[in-house]
Design goal:
The protein has a six-stranded parallel beta sheet, with helices on both faces. The protein is globular. The protein has twelve helices and twelve strands. Helix 1 links the parallel strand 1 and strand 2. It folds into two domains: 144 residues, 3-Layer(aba) Sandwich (Rossmann fold); 161 residues, Rossmann fold (3-Layer(aba) Sandwich), CATH 3.40.50. Helix 2 runs antiparallel to helix 3. By secondary structure, the protein is of the alpha/beta class. The chain starts with 9 loop residues before the first strand and ends with a helix. This is Lipopolysaccharide biosynthesis protein.
Length: 324
Amino acid sequence: MSTHHLKEKRILFIGPIFYHYHQEIIRELEHKGAIVDFLPERDYTVRSKFYKRLGRKAYQGYQDRYYFRLLEDYKDNHYDYFLLIKGELFPPAFVARIKELNPGIKCILYQWDSMKRMHYENLLPVFDKVATFDPTDSQAYGLNYLPLFYTKVVADLRNIREEEQYDLLVLGMFLPERYEGLKKLIIYAEANKLSLKYHIYLEKLHYYTQKMKGKAIDLNLCSFHSLSYQEVLALYRKSTVIVDFSNVNQAGLSMRVIEALGAGKKLLTTNEKIKNEAFYDPKQIHVADWKQLAIPEDFFQTTYHDAKNLDYLRLDNWLDTLFG
């Protein structure tokens, strides 16, 4: 369904500030003719962090006040749509109030976190449409299933011809499974003469917390410095296969997975759920068992850049689905 119906429609968009993704969503909605007001899905100030350390109840109260202050500031705008992405500790009463202020408004929730990690059952009844990136949650709660998206700048990488310097690329924040998987992959790459580039971002607080518990983390494998998105794109261009160590607490496909395929790159992943997707193709995607790591040799030698089956996840089409 085309979103030409968004032309001159007003949208209140509340979502996380993560890299540039919120800006890309705003830009695409505006390109479709919508008028968008964006608000961060939580308070990112030092004061907010203080309340978070006081416990869930104190933090919930602080977040409630934050949301309703925002609503008060924007109450005179008439909205046709309300889009919430994620919404940490989001109060259902906010949705009830915005419906009172905007009769006929359509309220849409998209979750790029799993119910196991962030419980949002209380939000399901108040939204008109709920979609999730997690196929397990979709089935368990009867929600629309919609994997994450990739942007035009990622799709454009398919048309850039640059010599690939790395056979394997590992990027992401520190996760125990990602850290352990990387150690095994380093051994495998050395044994098979494969070039490997990796950057695991580790927060200093987590490092010192683990150190106090007697759990050593090798800083030769991790960095306290996070990459900019432009640096991430540059590494995509230079790599043949992008590696995804999936979060064991999530069944949904990570943004790294969708971007790798959207960029026309090959993908090595630990997420078995990808085999259920219409775009799954063993010529481009290899699902790895990290206990007995084995990658077919021709996986690196053949080229494959056809992402036609993935077009529905390009951001413009993804928004058509979400607002359809």
